[in-house]
Amino acid sequence: MPAVVRFDPFRDITALREDMNRLFTRTLGDGPAAGSSWSPAIDIFDTPEAIVLKAELPGLEAEQIDIEVDDDVLTLTGERRFEDRVEEGRYHRIERAYGHFQRSVTLPPNVKADEISASVERGVLEVRVPKADEAKPRKIAVHANEAA
User: In whole angstroms, what is the distance from residue 74 CA to residue 115 CA?
Assistant: First the structure.
């Protein structure tokens, strides 16, 4: 009597994907292709004092990240190298992105580009772009007129 096999509509697609992964692994080597690129996720938000950019860069040290400003464009660049080697055995799946990355963001005209600061903590890069004084919101005092 034949065994009962549960119907899986994605079985053929999954098998095809695994075959393609094996083909690329044989063609390109054990790790991700050299020269590949990826794009880190970024968040940009506004505070009264600065524009803040946060980028997810897990596994990177501060010295592996370059930040440049040119013509009101802030550019982050760097590279995450694939260095994990399995001495015995093989990889079954590689999903983390490796290789060169670059992200560019256009800055508004009224920022202090010469005072930009950056720090990295727990894989998150934070870039603070201070606003020029004329760009900061100001509180205007309202005075009551005395009735004469």
Answer: 13
